Amino acid sequence: MGAIAAGVNLVAGYPGTPSTEVLETAAKHNDGSIYVEWSTNEKAGMEVAAGAAYSGARSMVTMKQVGLNVASDPLMSLEYIGVKGGMVVMVADDPGPISSQTEQDTRHYAAFAKLPCFDPSSVQEAYDMIQEAFELSERYGTPVFFRPTTRVCHGYASIDIKEPSEYHVNKPDGFKRDTMRWVIFPRLSYANHKKIEARNAKLSEVFSDYKRNFIERYNENNDGVSRGIATHGISYTYTQEALDSCRASFAKKDGDAETEFPDVLKISTPFPFPEELAVKFLTGKKEVLCIEELDPVIERQLIYLCGKYNLNVKIRGKLTHDVNDAGENTIDSVKESIAGFMGWQDMTANPDATGNGDDAAPPQLPVRPPVLCAGCPHRASFYAVKEAMRGKNTIFCGDIGCYTLGNAMPLDMVDTCLCMGAGLGIAQGVGHIEPDKTCFAFVGDSTFFASAITGVVNAVYNKADMILVVLDNSTTAMTGHQPHPGTGHRMMELAANYEKPADDIANVVSIENVLRGIGVAAVETVNPLDHKKSVEIVKKMAGIKGVKAIIFKSPCVVMVKHDKPKAVEKDKCVSCKKCINSIGCPAIILNDGRAFIDASSCTGCGLCAQICPVGAIV
Amino acid sequence: MNNNIFFCGVGGQGTVLASKLIASAAMRRGIPVMSAETIGMAQKGGSVFSYLRLGENLHCPMLASGTADIIIGFEPAEAVRSLRYLRPDGCVIVNVHPIMPVTAVLNGGSYKVSEMTEYLKAKVANLTLVDCKRACDEIGSPKAMNMVMLGAAIRTGVMDLSLDDIKAAMRERVKPQFVEMNERALDYAG
Q: pTM for the whole thing?
């Protein structure tokens, strides 16, 4: 919404939790003047956004933190070229991590790429700040980072927004040919590198005066406060909550007696670091606690400044183990860190309801790992491969998507998972070392387009021996069903016809044709819910030399109308539990020792009925 | 009046819609709201939480332990898991119909609902048990559950919102053919 108010002309991105909703919101509230696309991957999106900004448009590209690794190639060069229209690189970080492979910190990328970085701490601030990010980007002709974290991305709040009449209007004046500006050469990079360093020194000064970097003083008497807290992002709001709660406890206990509270430094632009403001904050302090999520970026900056300006301040934080060095912060963890830092011994966690009554131990709670949905076609695909290859020497290389959940018992069909598209390469590498192993790589349809095609070319070119299994459910399911090149829908049309997307608007890129075009030895497409046929095809493929591909095609169960639920015929069921122990469908539960199908969750996919040895499921 | 509300359940139970309805009902009354929720990986049968705060001078959408006025628990074991968020004198609404995780079924064991409800009874004075399975059977739709829970939560009076406020917010968000069923679910009082 903030980007729309800033007059954004083009938004591109690749879905990834927790960044996905930004692009979807822009598409939903589009008055028709903004071009919005789901790109094939983050690199494609970055380049599309750069091209638009070359043409004077305000553009934005959205992705999650690991997506930035894919897009880093164009980004690192774009740093030297710069842009004409404002360009915001919106990268969502995921402390925890709650749904990511890594806890990487995009603030490092900003420093590495020498690009300004904005770090919002609330929904309101994100709305306001992204407009300021566009302005700064345009003024200095450089892409800028905007990096919210999960709790800001997946928060909502009542906020003040602009009326459409107050929106910034940007009319792109088009691309102007100028090879000295837009064509990267070593000499140009050298010249621009010097300019970038000078600009960033200037931006450090600009950011010291930026209203969202500030020092908050909690004491009436400002002088002589010897301790401070430096923080950022959502942790700033945890700090506010924790300090409010401590102040309330002190007021209750000591009445008017004044307790010294720490000054708080809030950093909204970790790069270029607002040096002057930070030195002002450090001067006269004895100790400073840095409360950050992911990496100790502010902490290291403050240590550096203490050395540079010869300030005798002890900097504490993650490096001194005063703050957790991994995982996300909470109000409780921040309060504990502050209480420890300030020596407030009785300011621990609030009493809660678990302390009521007797101190009986709580009952043991069930663990709830995420699992494939009831009726998910991936379950059938994994089970077909498992049955066909039972007893054989195999490896199953997984990938990123819903189908990573094929790792759970009882399927247990994911031996490796690294990053988007990596399963293909890993399967080849294992195969070169162990020629007797049948190497499988599983990849989803969206991941196939995003980053697996080059892996297939590599396999064919280098004469690998492997089986590629494409799990084609015709959507990007994990992140909430975004379209991709194989679906025949594009974001623009989807948003315009949200209720009823028209059929086949874009050209469908056929996975089967792509694979045949590359020269894969054998390609078969089969519905995984036909268990017998699926097993036969896997066995047939395992007998062929070279690179083979099986496309298991069946739509995501969340997207389609369900069939009539199956039921167990009590008189026929022999309680062998094969249905439960082999496929682990959440719709099948045990009731008095017998399998029982929960009609409200069963989708009628029929996999269990094909497995039951006595035909008791109908 | 400020309210801290904690929702918990299992992915797919409709906790997020319930939280959004309270939020939009509050916003229609001019009460500021802040909220955060877990979505993504957690959706697929995992535990889900949603924090909702109503009132002035809020900094952060998350809750500290011991600060929720009410826990709306869509699943009994999840309510027990979330109890540390509840104020010592807070209130709990809980659905007694469990969702057994696949792992529990595989191990041949299921957890005992009575252990969960007994523990809640020992710890929470202001506890309401709701038999959502029976409610849904009587209403005639398995999808009515979140509205049954929401109705029960409003009737505690902990939040300064009426059933009419919620119904008005619900009509704006729900497809017309489901409005009547949802109204009956909100009014369902066991």
A: 0.92
